[in-house]
Amino acid sequence: MTVTLHVCTTCRAGQPVAEGDATPGLRLHAALAADAPEGVTVRPVECLSACSQGCAVALSAPGRWSYVYGRLEEADAPAILEGAAAYAGASDGIVPWRERPEIFRKQSLARLPPIGEMP
Amino acid sequence: MTVTLHVCTTCRAGQPVAEGDATPGLRLHAALAADAPEGVTVRPVECLSACSQGCAVALSAPGRWSYVYGRLEEADAPAILEGAAAYAGASDGIVPWRERPEIFRKQSLARLPPIGEMP
């Protein structure tokens, strides 16, 4: 299944950003988009409302639990992509705990149940 | 539209809970379920992975942004239900900022874009 990795591109991660410079969120997005594995669509989003815990990303797909992770930086891109690929590859989107990258185990901000069907 | 208010019932909110006692999450769920407004389905969930920011709830519906809120307690139930009703009543699920209850404005843990369609 193709899953979506949403990346907050407005995030300043609590750092001062000079006018014209890329935000930490934009830099994280670029690093992720440059190397997205098969089955993972990297999509920019303006604010995931996790501003005090930025940079933040969210993984989601139809019928699956969604996951939000925070306190991320550009250097975490390889681990984030590894975790996103595992999520895409798991038939139900639930990756065994030990197979998740450490940042997914330790930097979870929230998870959400699959979105219900229209009543 | 009927929206879902997910309530983490396993949450201890950092408090000791004696054996046999209801967790803060269970108490919050009971308060919310007892008075759910029309269009809001209150659903218990085991862990929203926001343990350090509990109690936590999540609002979601098909085709809409999802929202996760934290640092909640039983006494917040009326404000949470007010916010959930506004979310249910907004045609696109986006409630104008000033019309959101204060806890929704100040205690956001994350928001997630609508889940994409199956590719």
From TrEMBL, chains A, B:
Gene3D superfamilies: Glutaredoxin
InterPro entries named among the record's database cross-references: DUF1636, Thioredoxin-like_sf
Highest taxon of source: Bacteria
Short name of one Pfam family: DUF1636
Protein name in UniProt: Metal-binding protein
